[in-house]
Amino acid sequence: MKAFQYTRATTQQSAIDAIAKPGTKIIAGGTNLIDLMKRGVIAPDKLVDINQLPLNSISVNKLGHLHIGALALNSAVAEANLVKDLQPLLAMALNAGASPQLRNMATVGGNMMQRTRCAYFYDTTMPCNKREPGSGCGAIGGYSRMHAIFGASDKCIAVHPSDMCVALAALDATVTVSGRKGQRLIPFTEFHRLPGEHPEMDNTLAPGELITGISIPHNNFAKNSYYLKIRDRQSYAFALTSVAAALEISNGTIKQARLAMGGVAHKPWRLFDAEKALVGKPATEESFKQVAEIAMQGAKAYEYNKFKLKLAPATLVEALKHAAGLV
Amino acid sequence: MTNDTMTKGMSRIDGRLKVTGAARYSAEFTPAGMVYAVLVGSTITKGTIRSIDTKAAEKAPGVLAVITHINSPKIAGYQVEPGKQEPAKGTYKLFYNNKILFNGQPIAVVIANTFERAQYAASLVKAQYNAETYQTKLADNTAKAFAPEGDGKKTRGIADAWKTAPVKLEQEYIIPSESHSPMELHAIIAKWDAPDKLTVWTKTQGVQDTQDGIANIFKLPKANIQVNSKFVGGAFGSALQVWPHEVAAILAAQVVKRPVKLVLGRADMFTSVGYRPNTWQKIGIGATTDGKLVGITHEAAGQTSTYEDFNEDPVGVSRSTYACPNVNTVYKISPLDIGSPTWMRGPGEATGAFALESALDELAYALNIDPIELRIINNAETDPDSGKPFSSKYLKEAYKLGADSIGWSDRKAKPASLSKNGWLVGYGMGVGMFGAYRDKASAKAIMMANGTLIIQTAVSDIGPGTGTAMVTIASDIMGIPADRIRFDMGDSSLPQAPSQGGSSTTATVGSAVYQACTDLKESFQKLIGNGGTDKPDYVEVLKKNDLPKLEVTAAVSGGPEMEKYAMYSWSVHFIKVLVHPATGVVKVDKAVCVADSGHIVSPKTARSQIVGGAIGGIGMALMEEVIIDHRYGRLVNNSFADYHLPVNADIPQIEALFVNKPDPYLNPMGAKGMGEIALIGMAAAVANAVFNATGKRIRELPITPDKLVGMEDLLES
User: Fold this and answer.
1) Residues B373 and B443 occupy one common structural domain
2) Using 50, 70 and 90 to split pLDDT, how confident is the model at B417?
3) Which residues pair with B301 in a beta bridge?
4) Separation between Cα atoms, residue A131 and residue A135, nearest integer Å
5) Which residue of chain A is at minimal alpha-carbon distance from B642?
6) In what helix (H) or strand (E) does residue B374 lie, and over which residues does it extend?
7) Which of A8, B42, B362, B676 has the fewest CB neighbours in a 10 Å radius?
8) Is residue B18 a part of any domain in this protein?
9) Which residues form the domain of B301?
10) pLDDT, tens digit, for every residue of B9-49?
């Protein structure tokens, strides 16, 4: 690993000032950043530790909106009664991610900023447009088992690895960021981006901006939410496919639905069309199978991930069955 | 043995040291002046190094030296004797020439005054290569496979007789390469005490074999090499030879004239210390309609490197597991441009048993005979391969114990007919066998004036609890409590002991400890006179005779009984799985492992060993797979995040049951081995349970959800 400077930011402003300089990275939990540095994928000149900033609160306002600070630990959020009561889908998704040790270190903001786990991104001897724009994509024509079936480009077929973000995308969360120009809000579904021509950019955060927190608006999904993650082992494995499903059901009829998939795209894959199709339908397996077909429209597989074309709709149906209390 | 020891078993003598961090592993010693080495691996798969630029690395802060094939001191043992030809094959020679034989091969070692500086400088070493075309995929290269020396074709009775049977089938089975992935990284500290005198602390399964290996490579007198390896954090066969990284550290220490520490990174562990080889197998099997086996044909082709022939005879299980009049086996190895494979827990048998025990299961369904019943019908009363009687075999008892415990009577003969809460339920079983051996070993037993008994032997303990078993044996013979016994091991200067491997330590080293203690007790009885007493007061006798201590060294070796009897340990694994029909997720709901390992010397650690092996087998069945991108010849899952080993959440309650009947011939304790059989047969048991649950036969491991997804119709029908 290249030698680097390390400082602690004591105020939000000093952190923002520090990251304005190129070659500077923010470190919070460091659960991904340190791996990337060890493997030589990134080599920052300077790390700014923001763990002392007061950004770890979890609170609810009078409208019932849940606010979570960017530095709240994944484990603390998953265990918070406010979260479990108001947005159990988020708690479930968090608990499906990583391992207990990692969740105890990882923060909400860091979770959003984690990079793909694509093997070609991590091995600096392999081509990767995300790591080194213009070098090519190793995964296309390579070992593509963990890769995207939605929204990929001929530059990159990597997926975003987070579970938490899948739930936040489904729950219409908003990201609060601060930069030198002040504060702005980014809808969660617009925070991460598709690879397109620029897979080196994971998200829409502007240079020098700091994530300070996320907000989830009040909803009526708490009773009928489920996060289902299919993986090769039961802990510490990234999703083959995952689904965040949230339903509002009245007398057996679906009034509102929120659906997002993980392990299938460069960003948490919100399923707007499938959600719309669910509204007004009875909460039955039959309805869920119908919308699974809608959800899969436009899916495209590569050599080693064809199974996802079957697994993704199966995961969706199963998650909806759980959310609706049919399992 | 006292009742108390037998019913409860002794706790691990080193358990407290291990869980408190007081146990010092090979990387945890700090000889004065120690510096750090990091290897640089090749980024091509085959070819030659055209040039290698080490200037930037040499100038980096703290760097003491960079060694490559260009400036490496000549290693005496690598040199070809005058007038002799360079052998076509042999152990990989570090920095010997500019040839690249596999991706990740060490091309340089960087030594610096801190680990971080060595690691950074290693990233600055840049090689230019002349790349050549290569082959890393077994499936494309089975045609060029050849029979390894001593193996190849073997026929008993009539070849391919299975084809004449009324009920028959032929299927192919594939296992991917698997990585040992022990928790402890391979590590060595090398310290030259004089120009011809060396001390190493290294991860090894055998300090004296490592001593031999280093002596051969560096052409040093064996007595000048001290090898220490007191604690080993798992090895599973990966520490049975001197590896290139060990040579690199010894060489580095010679060059910089300071002690050098080299710890492999996790990624390097996948290419530097061997693996279980990717193996293709085909079995043809046939039986009469009442289940009597007519014939088995078992073919296998495994991968090896271009520079070494690795031979593990996976087809041997088909010759000895069941009574079958006609068996022919063909084994070949295919040289690929990859590093050499090596022994991994249950080497050969674990691979072969996946094929054989899957095929037996397939045959049981074809015959409509219960899989246990089919095995009992074909139970071998004498070793079908050698014709010799078994020294002991309690496999039928093992079937009964395991079937009762798993609830085999709940199993349905028709696949996919049981379900619970939306999950398909299935039961499967598989048999494991492994030769029981006793080798040469010595042990010294010393009774001190204060009543402390010291037992010394050069054995290693890679995790099974060897020390605990040896203390149990000594305690039993000497009639003194375990806390008065000190067990010294993992030191090459101690009395001779073989490497820990092949499930032979308790039988071998245990016999030496047994003999040394028996002889020591006799010496006391002679001092007492009049035939002595069964419970000598050792302290009193020493005092009376004015002796500071009394010591005896005993040597044992395999006896003539090994010629007379076929000796095997046996296991039966029973598995209950839940399979989610729509998503293809498999959960092991219950595992029962029954071992016929002779008399159980150390019940607590024996249980741990069975549980560990069972977990290894479940990993083999459901998730372990080394994946190479053949376009580059490089691994794409060389981390613990991507190479999946089971975690706690994957593992149910595992029941370890023992027949616990002594083998009358192998050794005085009546013990047989159990390290290998804990794993052998498990992968097939899981695959067979998955078939029982779903009707889907998975013949290529691992059984991941992608291979089962989309069976929701099964539940609805």
Assistant:
1) no
2) very high
3) B280, B332
4) 9
5) A237
6) helix B371-377
7) A8
8) no
9) 141-168+280-387
10) 899 999 999 999 999 999 999 999 999 999 999 999 999 99
* Residues of chain A neighbouring B43 (CB-CB closer than 8 A): 125
In angstroms, what separates the C-alpha of A107 from chain B's closest C-alpha?
A: 19
**B332: closest CA of chain A, how far (Å):** 28
What single DSSP character describes residue A266? S
Judging contacts by C-beta atoms under 8 Å, the chain B residues touching residue A234 are: 587, 647, 649-650
Structure tokens belonging to residue A19: 């990251």
Number of other CB atoms surrounding residue B71 within 10 Å: 13
Kindly state whether residues B256 and B225 are assigned to the same domain.
Answer: yes
Tokens of residue B427, six digits: 């039961």
Phi, psi (5° rounding) for residue B699?
-110, 5
Count structural domains, chain B.
4
- The answer to whether the CB atoms of B116 and A327 lie below 8 A apart is no
Nearest CB neighbour to A236, from listed B43, B634, B647: B647
Contact status, residue B109 vs residue B248, Cβ threshold 8 Å:
yes
For CA atoms B220, B222, B228, B234, give the dihedral sign: positive
Q: Give the C-alpha separation, B519 to B558, whole Å.
A: 18
Closest in B640, B641, B709 to A311, CB measured: B709
CB pair distance less than 8 Å for A126 and B632: yes
CATH number of the CATH domain containing B206:
3.30.365.10
Distance separating alpha carbons of residues B499 and B169, to the nearest angstrom: 41
Whether B174 shows a pLDDT value over 60: the answer reads yes
The token pair at A175 is 């990201």
Secondary structure class of B639 (helix, strand, coil): coil
For position B716, what pLDDT does the model report? 63
CATH 3.30.43.10 intervals, chain A: 5-51
Predicted local distance difference test score (pLDDT) of residue B554 = 98
Contact list, A123 vs chain B (CB under 8 Å):
634, 636
Q: Looking at the predicted structure, is the pLDDT value of residue B76 above 80?
A: yes
User: Closest approach of chain B CAs to the CA of A142, in angstroms?
Assistant: 6
Contacts of B331 (CB under 8 A, 6+ apart): B147, B148, B151, B152, B299, B300, B301, B302, B311, B313, B314, B315
Same-domain status, B62 and B196? yes
Closest CA to A138 of A261, A303, A300: A303
Residues within 8 A of B (CB atoms), A 226-245 only: 230-238, 240
B592 close to B614: Cβ distance less than 8 angstroms: no
- Please tell me whether residues B482 and B553 are part of one structural domain: yes
Q: Give yes or no: B676 in active site.
A: yes
Angle formed at CA B550 by CA B544 and CA B553, multiple of 5 degrees: 160
Are B503 and B631 found together in one domain?
A: no
Say what the pLDDT of residue B2 is.
Answer: 42
Instruction: State in words which class domain A224-323 has.
Output: alpha beta
Q: Which of A78-92, B78-92, B417-431 has the lowest mean pLDDT?
A: B78-92
Residues B81 and B198 in one domain: yes
Checking if the pLDDT of B189 tops 80, the result is yes
* pLDDT of A183 over the 80 cut: yes
Please tell me if residue B131 touches chain A, with a CB cutoff of 8 Å.
no
B445 and B502 fall within a common domain = yes
Q: Report yes or no on B540 lying in a domain.
A: yes
Using the predicted structure, report yes or no on whether residue B618 has a pLDDT greater than 60.
yes
CB pair distance less than 8 Å for A307 and B709? yes
Mark yes or no for CB contact B647/A234 under 8 Å: yes
| Chain B residues within an 8 Å CB radius of A145 | 706
- Calpha distance A6→A41 (Å, rounded): 18
The answer, yes or no, to whether residue A293 has pLDDT greater than 80, is yes
pLDDT in tens, B452-507: 999 999 999 999 999 999 999 999 999 999 999 999 999 999 999 999 999 899 99
pLDDT of residue B562: 85
Q: Which CATH architecture has domain A5-51?
A: 2-Layer Sandwich (3.30)
